[in-house]
Amino acid sequence: MRCAIYTRKSSEEGLEQEFNSLDAQYEACSAYIASQKSEGWKRLAGRYDDGGISRGTLERPSLTRLMADIDAGRVDLVVVYKIDRLTRSLMDFVKPVERFDKANCSFVSVAQSFNTATSMGRLTLNVLLSFAQFEREVTAERIRDKIAASKKKGMWMGGIPPLGYRPKNRELIVEPAEAAQVRQIFALFIETQCLGRLKKEADRLGMRTRPSWTGKAKGQVFRYSRGHLQGILKNPIYVGDIRHKNEIHPGRHTAIIGREDWDKVQSILAAKSHAVRGRGRDGAMKRSPLTGRLFDEAGDRLATTYTRNSRRRLRYFVSARLTDRSPTRTDDRTSWRVSCCANGTGDCGGYPSSTERRQRRSPPGRGIRRRTDSGERIRPLCRRS
Question: Quick check: pTM over 0.70?
């Protein structure tokens, strides 16, 4: 087993001496390796000494060289005098240990009897990693609390700034050219009142996003997508506010959009959110013009569905709760199943088809129901296709 010895001293004081702290650590580790000669341990000739380098960083010349040798498979075991020679931070300790595991390399601390090659050493490692996880979570909570408190004060807490602004000293500064484009997007949406038409108009006018900040597309510009435009229209940054999760706080930056235009855009978006969506919406509305406009006595929207006989597709309305396919669904006998006309004249004059008769004999909760619970005949609502 090829053993590499790593030593470190935080300050440069005493390094000029003939026998310094690095030498003392190296001799102690060499003696420990010699005591394990029966286990096949063999000390490598090279030394990995970091003198005068603080524990606060893992960017150390000798440590970097050691990690490269481990990744190359030239080291099987890393020996240190104490764990804090590698790092005193449990969070930083996790990073090299993960690389050790990937390269099938063990770690030994001489003074603390710590050896990941044994079961007890791995148990100790798991305990240390548990504390490292606890430290990470506590730190994350502290950071989240700080971000929440800062946003309540209207401060910009980093990240990619929105279109129309640039960050400076925890504040957002208006970029005039981009701000003009944002105002134009809001004005076009108020005029068109449709994201699809807004995108077409933006493409016609040659509007493009700002150059990408990250990734493979860094520096490139693109056309606006519907999602990008919707994100701009819903971002409270433009009216002078800061969003944190579900809370909105007054910001310190200058608003680009007036409150009146902002409220108008949000009301349009809210109204559009209740519209019928889906592929082929125009065709669906022509086949069932009452889709999304009918509700049962419980306030549940009537959804369109269909069955099929040997000749044609038969359409009808059902309460939306009947379309629930979850395992917890209950059979609701108060739900509506409203048939459509059979002859295209607006009146169900004739007899039901064989499919309809078969569905009438099916168990409750299925098929087409011709009468309500009170026995009243159900009138047709729309035409079959």
Answer: no
Tokens of 121: 């050493």
pLDDT tens string 35-73: 988 888 899 988 888 888 776 677 888 888 988 988 888
Report angle CA 374, 379, 385 to the nearest 5 degrees: 140
Give the per-residue pLDDT at 382.
46
Alpha-carbon gap, residue 379 to 339, rounded angstroms: 7
The model's confidence at residue 336, banded by pLDDT at 50, 70 and 90, is low
Which position has the token pair 């060289």? 65
| Architecture (CATH level 2) of domain 2-132 | 3-Layer(aba) Sandwich (3.40)
The pLDDT of residue 342:
45
The residue ranges of every structural domain in the chain are 2-132, 165-272, 281-360
Distances from the Cα of 63 to the Cα of 5, 68, 128, angstroms: 11, 9, 21
Among positive and negative, which fits the CA dihedral 127, 133, 136, 141? negative
359 or 106: whose pLDDT is higher?
106
Sequence-distant (6+) residues with CB within 8 A of 151 are 157, 242, 244, 249
Best CA proximity match to 335, nearest among 360, 376, 298: 298
CB atoms within 10 A of CB 133: 13
What class, spelled out in words, does domain 165-272 have in CATH? alpha beta
* CB under 8 A, 24+ apart: contacts of 328-334: 331/364, 331/365, 332/365, 333/364, 333/365, 333/373, 334/297, 334/298, 334/373
Is there a common fold for 2-132 and 165-272? no
Task: Give the Cα separation of 348 and 78 in Å (integer).
Answer: 86
